[in-house]
Amino acid sequence: MDVEILEPGIHHRLVVERPVVHAASRGPFQSRSGSGLAIVGPWSDDEHVIPFVLGSVHAAKEMSEPVAMLVGLRSPGENPKASVARAKGVLALIEGDREAWVETATEYGGLADIEAFLQDQNRMHGWDCFVSEVDGEEDEDAASSVLGFQREFNQRFAGNLLEDGICGTKTLGSVFDVLRDAWAKWLHKHGLGDEDISRVTWLAHDEALAVPSRGSGGLDIWTLERAAFEGGDVDAARVGESRCTVWTRFDVPVEPWSWAAGPFTIVTDVPAGEVIPREEYTLRSDDGSFDMTLAIPDDTLDEGLQTLRFHALPADKSYSLTVRVHDGEPQVLFEGVPYNRLHSIWREGTE
């Protein structure tokens, strides 16, 4: 019998790789309690669900066969069907399924959801559909807001809605059309295309998962490799309850200006409070409609490092950035960069 003697330091190995699940760093997305719609509103701090979805798409770019699970989270006492509907409603928005979204909104939504949506259209995009209070009451104020939306939709989208102030299925379908228009603009803002969406397998989990520690229900998005299921069923409960799952977080930037505009941040390598020569950074759109100069140290934020933050850049412009130290000549850092590529400037510059 032959006996093999292993040299010191040589061992048999079993390598165990745990499945990695990507979820939003700021989440889950909060919905109105009892509602089956994941829609902008005071309950979501006026944020939209679409950036949360696109955050998962960015995370999926590093995967070979990405699966994104839309998971409705049920707060204590909430109808589990409503939380399941939230996942299906967002899936319908992603897939452009107007009929399915309207069905979800009709059965599991409410007038308060639509009022919150109209309030955002009025505040952020200038639609003449002012909402005095998001309360879900079918009163004259609500009818006036819906009527304003119907008129604006007919003008902007060449629609044929009956302008009667009643939020019926046709008006709900028009709300979906506006959301899909916003979806296309969010894609442009994030530098994504239909091909990025289609390479992800999107699934709406058909059971509600309880979240007893949270005050309201919401929606979570879990993105992982298809291979993690080893040929078995893709099941959110299996992922959520697994003790070997490794959770990591993808960033969802705070973008209170919706798809129309967004922030741009410069983070220096200088510790906060350290004295350095004055530096002036000028961010300018190519058409001159946006032109802002921030200086270090005058305009810096204390975030451990000296940070400058430009707010409300129009998302449909291209930009240049220059820096001037002391009273020297401005130096160009980049120019002609579309907004949807600003987030990748640093990465491209370091590769």
Describe the protein.
The chain is α+β, with helices and mostly antiparallel strands and 351 residues long. The protein is 32% helix and 25% strand. The chain has ten helices and 14 strands.
Question: How does the SSE layout of this entry go?
Answer:
Elements: E1 20-24, E2 29-30, H1 50-60, E3 66-74, H2 80-95, H3 98-108, H4 111-125, H5 140-156, H6 169-190, H7 194-198, E4 201-204, E5 209-210, E6 218-225, H8 236-241, E7 246-250, E8 261-271, E9 279-285, E10 291-296, E11 301-302, E12 305-314, E13 318-325, E14 331-338, H9 339-342, H10 345-350
Parallel strand pairs: 1-7, 3-4, 3-5
Antiparallel strand pairs: 2-6, 3-6, 8-12, 9-10, 9-13, 11-12, 13-14
Helix pairs in contact: 2-3, 3-6
First-to-last CA distance: 55 Å
Task: Give the % helix.
Answer: 25-40%
Order of helices and strands: EEHEHHHHHHEEEHEEEEEEEEHH
Derived from helix and strand composition plus strand pairing, the structural class reads: alpha+beta
Main sheet summary: 5 strands, mixed
Give average pLDDT, whole number.
87
* H/I helix tally: 10
In short:
This protein has 351 residues and is of the alpha+beta class. The chain is 32% helix and 25% strand. A hairpin with a 5-residue loop joins strand 13 (318-325) and strand 14.
